[in-house]
Design goal:
10-stranded mixed beta sheet, Arc Repressor Mutant, subunit A, 3-stranded antiparallel beta sheet, binds zinc ion, elongated, alpha+beta, 3 domains, 38% helix, 504 residues
Amino acid sequence: MTKKDTAAGYEVVIGLEIHAQMSTATKMFCGCTTLFGGQPNTHTCPVCIGMPGVLPVMNNRALEFTIRAGLATNCQISRYSRFARKNYFYPDLPKGYQISQYELPICIGGSVVITTEDGEKTIGLTRIHMEEDAGKNIHEGNTAAGHSRSHSLVDLNRAGVPLMEIVSEPDIRSPKEAAAFMRKLRGILRYLEVCDGNMEEGSLRCDANVSLRPYGTEALGTKTEIKNINSFRFVEKALEYEIKRQEKVLRAGGTITQETRLWDVATGVTQSMRSKEEAHDYRYFPEPDLVPIAVSDDFIEGIRATMPELPDTLKGRFVEVYNLPKYDADLLTSDRQVALFFEETVRGGANPKAASNWIMGELMRLLNESAGAAAPAIRTAPAIKGSVAIESLQLRPADLVGLLRLIDDGTISVKIAKVVFEDMFNTGKSAQEVVKDRGLVQISDEGHLEQTIEDIIARNPAEAGRYRAGEVKLVGFFVGEVMKATKGKANPKLVNEILRRKLS
Ligand SMILES: [Zn+2]
């Protein structure tokens, strides 16, 4: 654990509850579409707007998806589980209760391995259960200083969208670990194709429980819950802030109030929202409108048989088969589409380490940069760091293979290759096309280079003299001049050879 993640003298205890919207076509208990967007209240029916007298019917795909997630995280799958009513009232929950699971969740236990700067660590899971999402309140009206919003509207398109709630054990010890856990889970869910992981649209969000206790003690301190965090960066920032706040209160001899706090993105502080409900405040009871869920071994084995290769397995394979450093393998496998892109590039004939460097470096940089701009690619499911999805790019693995080939055979330098790559990324052209269109072929004609170098030495007699007197690092100056003269197209290896020869 790094020093700055901890409150000196106190141990940080964090547990996360991740809410993942499932990528089913229809809602949890009715046939309405789960599509994001749409005019307010158009994706609704009597079931999801909570009309009296209607009956919910469980979406079997949602059950299957949750079991997939459970199998991928080593949970025990309950052969018998059931839904419960969680009673509370907000305008975005028209029934006055949420259908969730309480005493008998579908998945119990399990664990996830995270990787941080300090190595690997296993985070335990308490449970994974199914529930329905609530609608959205939209606050409108006079927003001038000193006025509160004049009215609120409710959009129920999201009400009833299937959610899985993944609850971790309080095994997380720093904001960095919390972000790593969230990242890892998002990766797994995307591999399984049970959640698109689109955090900007709220498909994946988390609540964080955090408390401090003096080092060496076992008893948990009073916790606060931070609600509705929807990015990896915010989970770290919100927790860092909250840890400092709690530490300050404890140091001053105060006590922490158990409460729910909201992370304010604009001001960077957490603010008290309400005193935290205890489970009994929700008056849970078994949902009488839904039969208990009985799951057979055959059903579970059928799901297991269709499981894809998961990030940890893939990571192991990348290290073993392609001889990649663990760091590379971890980054490449954190998103399935990135991993597929890498493998296809290598299958196309690229050197694995070179392919890895280009994907982790230039490709990720361009993907992240274009995430904010009017992107060349369609924004669907984002790749790493909430950026543009790699699968929606015009650039294909075969194009990267082509670029690496041009570097290998000396047609272009690595420096020029970066320029070519950016062009390929933006236009979808092949490396050969870009090099041809822009006249970027590397100058490897020895006679041509010799002439250029002789001219440069003649123009810089003082530097040449100092080089010959022993100031050999001046070779860098000459290389720079040659590159300037050739617009970066000179073959660097050849330039170095000729320079040393001419200057000696
Ligand atoms: Zn509906």
